[in-house]
Known about the structure:
The chain has a single domain (about 15-314), classed as Farnesyl Diphosphate Synthase, CATH 1.10.600. The strands form two sheets. The chain has a two-stranded antiparallel sheet. A two-stranded parallel sheet has the order 3-4. By secondary structure, the chain is mostly helical. Helix content is about 75%, strand content about 5%.
Amino acid sequence: MKICKTESNPNEETILLSRQHIKFADKVELINNRMHEILSEESIRLNQVDLVDDQISTMGKRYRPTLLLVTGESIGLDLTELINAAVGIELVHDSSLIFDDIIDEEYTRREKLSLHRSYGTGLAIGIGLTLSAIGIKLLLSYEKKEIKELVSQMLVDLSEGSTLENKHDTEMGMDDYLIVSTLKSGSLFGTATSIAAALANKSPYEINRFLDLGRLIGLCYQLMDDIVDKRFDKKRLNYQSKLKISNNIPIHSELSYLLESNYSNSGSSDSSLILRHMLRRALKRISELENELISEKHLHTFQSFTEYVFKKVI
């Protein structure tokens, strides 16, 4: 995948990307419409569907469920087979944002008061649990054993990532930073791509490769977000802390690859430069996996979406 300018005609490139973005926008609308239908069916008993609808409209940007749809289409699936899984992924993501805001004591979410600030922590927790439960129910409605295993691992990863992150209030080592980003951000992106692969009856090996691809996309998204937000102006990234990534950590070999450079010898302690260096290496691996897993016919569309997501961050 490339996020740099190419030698092609700028006008042609702009027109092509605009067409792709229209297609992505159509998918987002499809996701939002189906989500509203499901929430109306599932949460009406709690008399909070209007409140929930209002909140989720300002939460996630729908990148994860759209990635699931784009991945599925690129390997021969129809959107009707994928839409409930896409909504399930988004609802789990939205619930995680509610809990993150509570834990981090965030006052706003995308320029609106965060849910717990508007309605109190108790109601926010209740809505977060509702969204998560409905999302998991949707994902587990698929009968495939592989999907149930992927969903279970996603929930474990999200919980472990949040726990590890909150152990480091003022300083985080590079190793833990990569692990937290992979567990929290990478898990949802990875589950999106791998569920699509499972629904397409890919082999266990191929499903795992799609899982790795999605996790790396999620990791890069987090790297870019932290660079732009200058997150480590407040929380120090200890670049000298480069412990070996344990084999039981998802994509441990990929994370170990990102830690290979000897930053301490370079004399740099600039967190932004370190993150940018790791980002370049991760983007290279994403490009390699895309070319391995996606057919030439659908490769451009898939790459256009990942490029679109990353450009939205930077």
